[in-house]
Amino acid sequence: MNADKVARELLIEECKSKPNEKLFFAGRAFTYAELAQALEGGEVSAFDALRLTYARKCAESLVQSLKKILER
Amino acid sequence: MSEPKNVAVVVAPKFDPATEYSYSWSRDVVDVLRNYGYEVVDIGGRPVSRSEVTDALFKNSGALYVHYDHGSEWAHWGSQVEPVVDLWNVDLLSGREVYCMNCESARLLGVEAIKRGCLAYWGYRDVFVFTSDASADFKEFANAGIKRRLSGLSWKEALNEVKKLGVSLSEKLFSEGKFVAASAMQHDTDVLVCYEKGDEIDNPKKSWWRRLIEWIGRLIERIRRWIRC
Known about the structure:
Chain A is mainly alpha-helical. Chain A has helices spanning 3-17, 32-40, 49-70, and strands at residues 22-25, 28-31.
């Protein structure tokens, strides 16, 4: 299983288990529930376009950083 | 005759959920500075205006400057609408050391500050990311550099130690199953930098119109300061 997939699944699982925790990225607060949706790559109707862009950028950044830890 | 006291200007505005955290973390820094005998000019806990900060920096030439709040590539923010330090008044950072817990300001503002005589600039080249389930760990990481510097390490030694701390914290968070926090901590560690006067820095190329706008901005800032004197 590749590291990208493992990292993404670990993050999604954690986010779904703690939906009300928050992450602060580029001055914006995202709940873990919102992050899970961004990580899964789906559309989120509650997001405006800019917020969705930041959520996806955040999600990809988290995946890359977790991959780095996994590969250590 | 008593020795002149070291002075630190600490700017830590509070005006949204993220700055609730940064302001809270800055209280530890203020305490540590006072314990090391610094006179602290403490501006924060509310939205902060540009004039408050520029006045404080102007009146305290050479003082350490600490900023805990939102940042951009080109600015430190004091509120949702007004930057307090940016490419227009960056020469206020000349001759002093700067310690930032803000997003991205090391990418452009920090580079420009060093070019214009800033002695050291500690900051992040990308966004600073943190999570609510590991606030204590992010506080420890954010404050570690200034504590190590005050204890006597050089800036480069402090940077080296804090990068190791960041890796160690990311692994601790990973082992606790806090994968989001671990990733965020790893990211913050990777984008942390400290520039010092004389360093060769990757200087992003600027277009001619951008350089013109910055020149005009600095001129306006000088005129503004002259009018206020």
